[in-house]
Amino acid sequence: MQKNSDHAADPVLNHRIATQTPLPQNITALLIPPLTLGWNGAHTARSPKPLMEILIEWIAVAAIGAAIGFAGGLFGVGGGMLAVPVLALGFGLEQQYAQGTTYVMAAPTVILGLWHYYRHGSVDARYAPGIAIAGCITGYLGTLLALYLDPQQLRRVFSIFLLLLVAYMVISELPRFAPRPQRKRVNMRWSPAVGAFCGCLTGFFTIGGAICATPLLTRLFGLVQQRAQGLAFAAIAPGAVASFFTYAYHDRVIWHLGLPLCIGALATMRAGVAMAHRLPEKKLRILFYLPLAATAIALLSR
Q1: Cβ atoms 292, 86 nearer than 8 A
Q2: What is the predicted pLDDT for the residue at 87?
Q3: What is the average pLDDT across 150-163?
Q4: Is 250 helix (H, G, I), strand (E, B) or coil?
Q5: Comparing 7-11, 26-30, 147-151, 297-301, which segment has the lowest mean pLDDT?
Q6: Which residue range is the domain that position 70 belongs to?
Q7: How many domains does the chain have?
Q8: pLDDT confidence of residue 259
Q9: Is 40 part of any domain?
Q10: What predicted TM-score, i.e. pTM, was given to this entire model?
């Protein structure tokens, strides 16, 4: 009796009990939860929507995912580089929610990429495990750090990193700075250090890990481009999966946005890659970097 009276006298506890969200009773409630995010990323209650309205919303978000997947394949950049700004600016999500939701799309994508390179014999089984383990550990730690930061601070740091990444990619297009196999400078036993560095980038920023891993592996270890890209996927794939589960555990994933984004992106990414082989890819990528830089500046100014 005393315990019940204590609960009755504690307004904070009563508020927490009253606002607890019940567990979903069916798959529809799980995929389309009774709570959604407001424009500032805070939980806000909503009344149930008609099934047709929900279906239209899913189709619209899947169409956005299809555009992101096609553009990522066409321009040779990861979908996360496009999805995070879209979710942050277009849907008004806080930075952690934007990055966590992006992993619903990014994690399956990098796993499929790793499998593709493995099937073609471009993943060196001697070094991939060490790189993958290092990337997984630092990816998890990078995600915890991202969750710890204030959303505005994380968005500011993400925007600066995106600008630096765009500048690096533009410079890499120049023949003088294009990554190419070089004389081996570092022993491959140090390759897990590349996995650790790029896994941390993936965990903290969601983007940039694979873009940085490939030139590091070619310039430091003398790998040819295809083998470097295979090990780059080995560096970021486990970390991406660890980051995805970490964001999901901390309730920073908006499933009714992430799932249709993932479906749309996976459906069109291969078409974007096929189109890239028929168009002047380098010129297209350079033109693409300008709006991407503008997006980073827009994120920075919010």
Answers
A1: no
A2: 92
A3: 91
A4: coil
A5: 26-30
A6: 53-301
A7: 1
A8: 94
A9: no
A10: 0.77
